[in-house]
Amino acid sequence: MVVFQSDLFEATPLALVDDAESGIRYLPDMVPQATAQAWFELALANVTWGNQRRLMYEREVDVPRLMAHFSLDAPDLPEPLMEAAEQVRSIAGAPFNSVGLNLYRDGNDSVAPHNDKTQGLVQKAPIAILSLGATRRMTIRAKSGKGRTLNVDLHPGSVIVMSYASQFTHNHGIPKMCGVEGPRLSLAFRCVDLQRLHTRVKNATKPLVSASNP
Ligand SMILES: O=C(O)CCC(=O)C(=O)O
Fold first, then answer.
1. What residue stretches are annotated with the Fe2OG dioxygenase domain (predicted)?
2. Domains contained in the chain, number
3. Is 214's pLDDT higher than 50?
4. What's the domain range around 134?
5. What is the pLDDT of residues 64-110, one digit of tens each?
6. Ligand 1 mutation target, pool 151, 172, 192, most atoms within 8 A of CB
7. Is residue 171 within 8 Å of residue 138, measured between CB atoms?
8. Torsion sign, CA atoms 126, 55, 137, 173
9. Which pLDDT score, from 0 to 100, does residue 209 have?
């Protein structure tokens, strides 16, 4: 296990994973602390947070965090999402058009190791996650081989940029943790390809076996 920045808040960019695109990079201090705190309070107050349910071992359970999602061209986009999007677009150099938000209310909230679904995304466009509020640890692990788990502490105002390619090779997650100092928000900016997204949805609803070919 490798832990980055567990105790010290070192404002050093870290290249965590290398690949043919931009790999996975941790960029601390991308937003000044006062701005990060103001955005945290605004997003917490202005966003309507939803509680989702999912099936686990044939039982329906609460997803252990609150979530929200916006297209960045939505006319009723709550403050401060447009300002944050503009900042993150210029940091990552990508024309993000969608943001998924997670609210981790305390150390019991989490997201299991996973890769982002790529089918509805613009190919080769990165995903950038802005952290606000309490610091939480992200685990990053290669899907194959005996690779170590990388642990990176995501401080408020930091951005982690993950390549499209890395979603095929690595999983990332936010584990439950003791001693977390309050809620955390993550704003995950993505480039959604609406045509690919609609094809994916259409295919998902097609019957697997057609009547003429049972
Ligand atoms: O909260 C984070 O930093 C990770 C969020 C995440 O993995 C996701 O939205 O898919």
1. 95-193
2. 1
3. no
4. 2-202
5. 999 999 999 999 999 999 999 999 999 999 999 999 999 999 999 99
6. 172
7. no
8. negative
9. 40
CATH number at residue 105: 2.60.120.590
pLDDT digits (tens, 9 = 90+) for 16-46: 999 999 999 999 999 999 999 999 999 999 9
Q: Please give the pLDDT value at position 151.
A: 96
Residues in the chain: 214
Top mutation candidate among 129, 153, 161, 170 for ligand 1, by most atoms within 8 Å of CB:
129
Q: Is residue 146 part of a domain?
A: yes
Among candidate residues 40, 35, 64, 44, the one with its CA nearest the CA of residue 52: 64
* Residue 211 within a domain: no
Confidence check: pLDDT of 10 > 60: no
Please tell me the residue having the least CA distance from ligand 1 atom 7: 173
Ligand 1 atom nearest the C-alpha of 136 is 3
126 contact partners, CB below 8 Å, separation of at least 6: 21, 22, 92, 94, 161, 162, 163, 164
Which residue's alpha carbon is at the smallest distance from atom 3 of ligand 1? Answer: 186
Give the model confidence (pLDDT) of 105-146 as tens digits.
Answer: 999 999 999 999 999 999 999 999 999 999 999 999 999 987
Whether residue 64 lies inside any domain: the answer is yes
Q: How far does residue 213's CA lie from ligand 1's centre (Å)?
A: 41
**148 within a domain of the structure (yes/no):** yes
Tell me how far the alpha carbon of residue 57 lies from the centroid of ligand 1, in angstroms: 23
Where does residue 159 rank: exposed (0-12), middle (13-18), buried (19+ CB within 10 A)? buried
